[in-house]
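Before the break, one more example. Copy the sequence into your notebook; we will annotate it together after we see the structure.
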Amino acid sequence: MTTPVHHRHTALTLAASGVPVLPLRRGKVPFGNCPDCTGNACGGRPNMKNPGPCQCPGVCHAWAAATTEPSVIVSPSWAAAWQRAVCVAYHPGGGGLTVVDLDDAAAVAWARATLPATRTVETTRGEHWIYRGVMQSANAVRPGVDVKSSMAYVRYLGLGTGHLVDLPDVVRGLAVKEPPAVRPAPGSVSVPAGSGDGQCPHRTPVFLERGIAMAVQRITAARSAVHADVYGTFLAVLSTHGRCGCLTDTHVNRLFTAAQTKGETARHCTEAWTNARTTLGL
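Here is what the structure looks like once it is written out:
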């Protein structure tokens, strides 16, 4: 059975590694604001520019209470919280991390087929995939998948297995909402021409084929929010292959065919492709 001393020791260990921590109460949720801070009346600091507890005693402002200061973690003002705490949480963005929260077996299967391997932590129903890098947090980016980084907290469930890798564009793309079309859809798909020197490393057939196959699988596996999935997939493909001339009409047509099989129109596919290129400055 975990104890307040155990929770506090875990928090100090995490804080020593540069990861801001906070206690969670019953229900695995943050402690509520103290009376003086209700409704943020104190002008507290729940923002990324100056995250951390305000000057009141106790644990306030949810994720923004997370701290790496040992003196705060062991202070009398936090003692009551540790007595009631059921577990320790951390603010991934404050520690330079992003967590892809996979809530069920289907989400885990999607991640294994789509995302680069990284440090993985088992959860009650799924897994946390942890990457090095910070991004905007976003809930329900696809069925059973949340992205938690800035302005969010994650329950600490152990060190996990595997090695941290840098946050990939495919994860960043999950939180990107498709912008409106910036110009009328062209009559045909425009594919980046590339450098033309024939030395692009992505021209390795296995690398390129695997990337396109994974992108097609991601579109095919979409169970909801197909529109956003198509755009996010196009964005991920172009972020990797859009500047080097790897892509051909055959590759793009495979992506369009997968999207249209899920019910997207040819016009939307072209607009999503154009908007993704515009977003990336291609």
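The chain has a mean pLDDT of 81. The radius of gyration is 22 Å. Try to locate both features in your own notes.
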